[in-house]
Structures are given as structure tokens and as C-alpha cells.
Amino acid sequence: MFDVKRVPRDVRREIRHLKREGTRLALHVWRPEHPKAAIFYFHGLQSHAGWLWETGPRFAENDIAFYVLDRRGSGLSEGARDELADADTLLADYAAGVAEVRRAVGSAIPLGLFGHCLGGSFLAALMHDPEFDVPYDAVVFCSSWLGKLHATLSEEQRCALAADESDDPWNAGLASADFTADARFQRFIDEDPLAVRRLTRRSRSVLLNLERRYLDPSRSPLPEVASAFLSGHLDPIIDLNDAQRAFIQLTNGKGELTMLPTDRHYLLFTEARDRLINWTSAFVLLSGGDRVG
Amino acid sequence: MPNIGTTRAPVRTRTSPGETRWTTYWSTRRTAFATECGAARADLLADLADPNGAQARVLEDVVALGADSVHWRERGYDAVASAAPGAARTDAFRRLLPIMRYEDFIPLVERETLAKGGILSCSPVLRWLKTSGTTGSSKRVPYTQHWLTSYRIPAMQAMWGTYLTLHPEILDTPYATLDTQTVRDGTADFIEGVAYQAVSNRHPRLGGLDWNPPWYEAPWMGPDAPTSHEGRMYHRIRHLLGRPLQVITAINPSTLISLRDLLAEFGDRLVEDLRAGTFDGRPWNEPDADAADRLRLIVKDPDFALTDIWPTLRLYSCWLSASAGLYQRKLDKILPGVARLPFMSCGTEGVTTLPVDEATDAQPLAVGQAFFEFVPADVPLGERIAAGKPVRTLLFDEVKPGADYHLIMSQGNGLYRLWTGDLYRVHRVVDGVPWVSFTRRDGSFHSFTGEKLTEGQVTDALRCGFADLGLDMGLYLCGPQWAEPPHYVAVVETRLEDTHRADEISARVDAVLREINIEYGSKRDSCRLDSIRIHLVPRDAVGAYIENGRQHGNAAQYKYKPFQADAEFVAAFTGTQGDARV
Hints:
heterodimer, A: Rossmann fold, two-stranded antiparallel ribbon, 10 helices, B: alpha+beta, GMP Synthetase, Chain A, domain 3, six-stranded antiparallel beta sheet, four-stranded mixed beta sheet, 18 helices, 23 strands, 37% helix
């Protein structure tokens, strides 16, 4: 049943490895002894599972098994740094990760997919990937600007970007103060040796490719699952209005919008963290098959 | 002790504003705390009644935590989990996993700082514990959720369960107990975002199962109290002056002595605060001229005891064995007629013994806290480990009373088969459980007040200090000098023309020691240790002294040992006791 009282749990923390064509990917988990639901988290551009050391245990205390796959080239996963693999490879990695999680937690409990910032774009593309057939029960996009490149670049610019095969670095220009107002977390972000702060220009064309997969008007319809968009009431990094509009289009108007009390981008490093975790926990827990409808 | 007549009544104070919130908290926690501590003590006693079962359970837990960790899988240690539970698994554990020094764990700790769990053990790292290292930098001990909730906090609760069983007055009133074992300081030190602080700093609480005594919200304990030793002590005294204090608990006996010394030092300030109803000069409560007068009379006496300030005192607790026992005479003087209980034997790396009664010479091995192994003290364990040579260890039921042993422990935080560097003496075996006490650090000679100064640290500090001043350094001898406060004394060879620079080099070496041993630095800051004093002697003077010793002892086995058990050697060079300066 759904417990409203938070009971201290002995949280299991493991790092499993997925072998993907010779590359070892780190799949992180924070798991309670008897999970009632699971969440698979898609991290953003510069973050990785190492940013979630306080988030994972909190989800676990809510009876949620919390999984994060360090994207190829990010966190503890192998792969070229500052470089994105092609879209098919990335989506196949994620599909394998989600399948592994579904296998680990079984089919009896709900599985939620959670995309943060750029992770939301990976998530949306995976949801529309015809090869992806793992059942899931809920989707949360958090501070994600879906379709950002399509919204901010002209067709001519997008064509140029798609053709760009250069190794030249593109600096994301992210400032830790935009992520959080907490000095401890700002310092962590600034000094994190595993953070990805730039990409090759070629990699940006991968991001464009991902967007096309979920913005394509002829895309297949999505499963009817509970969907939500979460953000602070302000966000210094994304255009919230456009992000919400894109989400509504993606879900054909069936998703819900929720704002939490912060003006920073990385909600998990703000005072809104616990509300985000509790809200998401309830959203996913209650999305189980016998509760829908 | 002069007779101050009716002034021996406690110095009373009047209630200040703001007391209600924390005393209410105290009231709501009082019964639950007693219940939790009683249950933990019952668990401890059950473990001591079945030590084999307790050790087997701990090993199962260590294996369960480790087998799926990245490190165990990479090294193939996860094969231990395939061995049948019981003797076969114990054998596999001791055969497959090597004995480790802390420095052997450093590369793994580096990886764990990035992952925050999963590398060394399958539990989230909630905090990094800071403690003195032997190589110049502080250690980082992973404070995992599992270790916190299943080991460290139950150990605290079991010890307090013993205290409460023997002295229930601990919970008589919110003002009955002054607990200096624990502090609550904000930390500014983080490793990859995770707090890095001393184990005794229990702020903030890490979840609902973290340490939570009824006085957790007391103003003298909270994070608003000053962080300096003197400032925090003033806070404690001012808040508890005039209250019916019955129990003072500390880890180090030097803390209790410091409390009394600072009462004397702060006497005038305290008297003025009482008279004006202020707290460090700021308005706080009702003025109390009578209490101020009584306190003035008490602290005027140079030999006043803590029982003069608080006649209600019934109990104190702190480390009382090994070198800490040197403080006993002083403790008897400042706490006359007050009962005593020992603190557990522990380090940041884990708990070794837990008190179950008043015994001060030894305590039972805490068989439910770690999987323990022992190696006879005469085995040069450090050399063997460094050389990668096999070491045969003994289990807890194989040690002999009267013998000293190196301690190796596998804790539920991922630091498996850790050679602690501590030597323990087995005093007796009770119902199959060894009762042991910490005797000394391997390779070190002394720890007056928890600083655990090692030979390596002193050697490094001397070399560094001499080099900084451009002095030549030869052989040296170093030993502890008991005094108030105690200090270390060293005789060091140098060029004849530089032997007048003793004060200069003493100050320099003291400064280096403060840097490389944070406990030494902390105790120096709080005046619980005095500066190391160095006597400079001409070249070959120490060599000649050693040769003289060789001639009077077993020449074949005589070995230069820089560390001495005491400071008597100083007289051979100066004709004075070690305390005197050249």
C-alpha cells in the first residue's frame, strides 16, 4: 500500500555494468529491500549518477528503486568524453538499460521513466523508438526543453548543424549558479571531475537527430501512460513556455504540468528537492496498472 | 579544600527565555531514548552470550555488503559468497581477501568519492569521516548508511544503555547530563559534495535512525554554540551553571580537566554574567547577585572541584584505560566521590569494545560490531604486509589472556580486514568473550589524549622542522612527559654550534605536528597538550646513549627505538627531568 509515513530504510546501493559492444556502461541503483515501484532516470548533459547521492536514498525511502544509467562517455561509464555516440547507439544503450531494470524489478510493479533537462530529449526519442518495447507506466520530464534546437534554430541553421562533422568543441556555457543557489552544490558542480562541460560540434547533430525522432508528425502514437512535466516556477536555462508547449504537443494534451517553488534549473540541488521526490514517488507509485483509471 | 560553608550549595540560576523548546524536545525523546538504549544493550548482551553467532552474523553481513561491490567483483572476492555459510565462508574470506592498511584503500576511496557507494560496499556513502592519518593527510572513512544504522548508532545506544542501567539519573531532568562526546558543528569541508567531518560531529542528523539523545536540541550542544573549544565550553558552563547537573560525559579525560580549568579561567566572566543576567555580556536571563557571589567564592579557591560548582554530580565517564589512566589522579581531585564509567574503545574506523559494567581495566570485545582477527604483537605485521608475506590471523576465541595483539577488523562500511595499527591486550576471557583494552599504537609510544602520535609523524615533523631552519639532524629519542598539561619531549642530535636553538626548533616542530596530526593540533588549540620540547645535543650523543643501552642489554637483539615509554632518558643528556628545558 501507499505509505504516507517515511520509515528509515536500509538502502542498497549498487553499480552494475552493462556490456554494450565492448563498452562498459555503469547502471547505478539505490534500492529498498522491497520496492513498490522503480524509476529509470535519464541524466542531462553535464550531470551523471554521481549527482544523485542524496536523491537515490530518498527515493528508496519512499519504496522506489531508483536507477540511473551513466550515458556512454559520462560518469563512470566508458566511452569518449565530450562526445555523443550516434543516436541509434545511444537509444539502444538506454533500451538495454530500461530492459535490465524491468527484468530486475519484475513486471508486477510500476516503472517510471524520468528525464532531466537534456535527458528528457533522450527519453522522448526512446519512447518513439520502434525498437523500444519495454513496458513502462509513467513518464516525467523535469526541466526539459523538448525540441529546443528546432525551436531556436532556423531550418538553414539546422541543416548546417546536421552536416557538421567537426571535432571542434562546443561549450555548453552552463553556470552552476543557474542550477542551484546552494553554495555547496555550486562548488560541487564547478569542481566535479566527471562533469561533461562541452561537446564536439558533431555531437550536437546527434541531439538534432534525437529531436527529429519525437517531433516527426508521422511518429507512432505513444502508449497511454501517466505523463507529467515538472519545473521550477522560473528556470534560467530553458524557455519554460516553449518547453511546456512542446511537452503538451508530445503528449497530445494529456500530460500534466506542475511547478515547484524554485527559480533554479536543477531542482534536485534546491530546496524543492524533497517535494520533487515525493511528488514523483506518488505519481509513479499510483500509476500502477490496478490504479490507472 | 577550604570550607565555604553554606556557599557549597549549588550556584543556582534562573530560567532564561527560550528554554521551553528544547526541554519539550527532551521530554518527548526521554522515554524513547531510554527504550532504544535498553534494547541495544540487550542486543549487546545477547551477542556476548553467543559470540560465535555474533561473529558469524557480522561476517555474513560484511560479505553481503561486499560481494556485489565493484571492487569485490573486479578482484574476484565475490567468490566468498559462494562458499557455504559458516567455517567454509570464514576460511574463504580470510584466504581470498588480503589484510589491508588504510593506505591500500586510498585508490578505492578515491573512486568511492565519485560514486558515493557501490565501489567498496553496497550502501550509500552519506558522509566521509575525517581522522588523523599516518602519512601526513587526513583519512577518509566511508560513513555508509548501513554502517551508521546497523553498527555505529547501535554501539552508541548500547553504551548509553549500560550507563542508563547503572545510573538512571542521567535522564532525571533536562539538565542532568552534560554530554561532550558529541558536538553539532556545521562543516565547510566537502568531498565531491559529501560532507567530510569528525565522527563526533553529528550534525546534521542523517535520517531518522541517526544519533538522537534527548539533549540533541540543547543550546549548549546545537550548531549555534561556538565551534572553538573554549567558546563551546563557556556555552556549556553558562547554560548549566546552577542546574542540577548529575553526569558529565566525555571521550577524553582531558576534556573533563579542561572543563574545570576553563571554569577557573572564565570565573570572572561567569560571575559578571550571573550578576548581570547576561550571556557573554548580552542580556539573557534574570540577574542573580547571590549566585554570582557564591561562584566568586568557589573559583577564588585554586583547588576548587567540579563538585563545588555542581554538588549534585554523581557520575562521569571517559576513557580510563591505558595512557588515559594517567589522568586518574587529577580526575579524583576535580571529581571527588563521583562514580565513573568507561567510554567504549573505538576509533573513527570502528568500535572495538563496549562497556557493560563499571570495569575500567578492560571491556568485552564488541563481537557484534565487526569481524575481528588478531595477530600476536611480536609479529612485525607492518613489515609482513608491506612485503606481501602471508600472515596467519587468530579469531576471537583463539587469543590468550595476558597477551597483546595487533587488531584487524572488517567493518560493515567496506573497509575489510583493516589493520588498524592498534594493539590490544587481552585481560581475561569471560563466557568465551575476550575482555580487552587498547594499549598503544603499533610503532607509537603514546597518546595522552587521543592524538595517537606515531613514530612516523614525529620523524616527519622533526625532519621538516630541522630542514625549515637549515639545521642538521641526527638520531633522536622521544617520549611522553606527564605534566599539566602533558607534552612530548625529544632529544635530537645536531651540529654543536646549533644546540642553542632549542626553543626555535621546538616551536617549528610543534607547528608541523599540528598540521600532520589534526588531533594533536586540536588538543594543542584547547591547551590539553603543551608544545613538544626539544633538547638539542651534539652529534653522536644519542648514538653513544644507545650504545650504552646495548652493552647493558641483549646486544644481539638491541634495536634503536626512537620512541621511549617515558621521558627518563632526558636526564641522561641534561641531568634534569624531561620537563626542564636545556
